[in-house]
């Protein structure tokens, strides 16, 4: 078995729902991120890309018919470069990285591009076909932006609760207060704003043609715990014990991410040194309503496969789907919260479902390079009771 490395990463700025990227098709966003990752490998002959694997959670509209292959064609790669699209909901682009790293390590490929895309703004309504011809009743169109639709009636009701209500259940289970959630969310905005101001994201983010957007659009630098406390709850009333608001949960977003993954020999083909080694990976699943807590075991398994423990980890990128589930995971890991999402997270930066895993990996690799520290973990919870985690090793670590 050979070893797999992340060589380059790129992502678009993440747009808010109906915002600056609303006019950009998802296949164009994917092509933009893919071209951005390729542009950072100056010696790469595009013909040498063995495969492209892109994640996408929706695939019901303009992202249909293998959006990975569409991105290859739109990015101007040779038609000889193959591509596939994978779907593990919010973990789709992390799944793409995992599959790419396995292809490298098994010897099936030398260079693979991985990533993901989501336009939650442009996700279409879908209209199911009637079971019988010429129905007299009205038909219902379902939004494919987020969450359950066209649910199989055989599914138990507790499995198909809304994402927000599932996290209110998690809040009850672990007694995580509204104040803690709002403090976590305000921290996300504060750290993301500081990272952008310091230039951390300048080399990680590529512009989208035709869109007037330089930074992640959901970022609110002036966000405070006090301001968030004034927002009304979204899924349960205060009288019902509700704590989750639009301010302490990730927003609906548009965007794309991409990475170049390769073997050790790929360095000569790409003309760049690797950013990090893929040292461990894992998937985990539990009851669908508990999806927000699934990263706890996924990360533990990935660490064991990398041969390290939490005490070795210097940086964590945990997707902030909801503040409550992020806090539940950090508490369960027993780690220093200050190593988690030090450049902001999905609450402030945005969460375009299929692209978020690629953002986590790009940010994690850059954090390790900046600090000189060796080990980092990227983890994401996934609807319907799953999670993924990846361990990265900084191959140029000085600490």
Kindly describe this structure.
With 399 residues, the protein is α+β, with helices and mostly antiparallel strands. The protein has a domain at 5-123 and 251-392: Peroxisomal Thiolase, Chain A, domain 1 (3-Layer(aba) Sandwich), CATH 3.40.47. Helices cover 31% and strands 18% of the residues. The protein has helices spanning 26-39, 67-74, 92-106, 163-174, 178-197, 225-229, 266-270, 295-306, 323-333, 346-349, 356-371, and strands at 5-11, 15-16, 51-55, 83-86, 111-119, 125-126, 142-143, 253-262, 276-285, 313-318, 375-382, 386-393. The strands form 2 sheets. Strands 1, 2, 3, 4, 5, 8, 9, 10, 11 and 12 form a 10-stranded mixed sheet that branches. Strands 6-7 form a two-stranded antiparallel sheet. Helix 1 packs across helix 2 (67-74) and helix 3 (92-106) crosses helix 11. The radius of gyration is 20 Å and the shape is globular. The model has no long low-confidence stretch (mean pLDDT 97).
Q: Give the class-level CATH name of one domain.
A: Alpha Beta
Distance between the termini: 27 Å
Largest sheet: 10 strands, mixed
Q: Quick one: how many beta strands?
A: 12
Question: Which stretches are poorly predicted, pLDDT < 50 over at least 5 residues?
Answer: none
- For this structure, the CATH topology of one domain is Peroxisomal Thiolase, Chain A, domain 1
Q: Mind telling me which CATH architecture of one domain this is?
A: 3-Layer(aba) Sandwich
Category by helix and strand content: alpha+beta
Number of helices: 11
